[in-house]
Amino acid sequence: MTRTTLYDASDFFVDAFWTAKVGGGANQLTPQQRKQLEQSQLAEFNKRYGTLRKMNSAELLVCRNGEDKIVACAGVEIDNIPKDCLTGPSKTKAPLMSNLAVSRQFRRRGLAEEMVNAVERLVRDEWNHDECYLYVEERNRGAVKLYQKLGYRKVWKDPYAETLLPTSDGSLCNTRTTIVCMRKQLAGSNSFWNSLFSR
């Protein structure tokens, strides 16, 4: 992934995720909100996927349409997974899927499921891990339902988490939310055999 693609991905993510965000986000972003969100999203993508990717511990996957425009994305990185809440002590280090978003024009076509499957294949077949975690806001019922359908199970809930919310008055505010940590055991992982035959 090139730096240009990270720019493209952050612009796409602002439209697909932050505009009309679940939980009462503004239906349209002001130029100031868009600028702030694009800057912070690019910084996050660079931090997560820019340098870590070189160590095979982070990847941002994108799906493009026939016009070469990004229509979906999903990220994954090896990260510390807390034991019982976002700020709690670390339980394990494992793949953590994040930043799943699909363009509004391409929703309800199975793209979100395809992106999750692509992340899982990467985690299982290239990184040799047998599990994948994710965090999702509990109020994002559509996402929670999709993850459950795909085999993810709730590990813990953190009712004291905060998230950014673009408001209709043009500001960005932190608001309380409940984050659900979910985990899936990946079928067909080679990690057991690889561990037996590793040097």
Structural write-up:
By secondary structure, this protein is an alpha+beta fold. It contains 5 helices and 6 strands; from the N terminus they run H-H-E-E-E-H-E-H-E-E-H. It has helices at 3-18, 31-50, 111-126, 141-149, 191-197; strands at residues 58-64, 70-82, 90-102, 131-137, 153-166, 172-185. The protein has a 6-stranded mixed beta sheet, sandwiched between helices. Strand 1 and strand 2 (70-82) form a beta hairpin. Helix 1 (3-18) crosses helix 2. Mean pLDDT is 89; it is low at 191-199.
Question: Which helices and strands occur, and which strands form pairs?
Answer:
Elements: H1 3-18, H2 31-50, E1 58-64, E2 70-82, E3 90-102, H3 111-126, E4 131-137, H4 141-149, E5 153-166, E6 172-185, H5 191-197
Parallel strand pairs: 3-4
Antiparallel strand pairs: 1-2, 2-3, 4-6, 5-6
Helix pairs in contact: 1-2
**Which outline best applies?**
globular
Tell me the strand order in the biggest sheet: 1-2-3-4-6-5
Order of helices and strands: HHEEEHEHEEH
Secondary-structure-derived class: alpha+beta
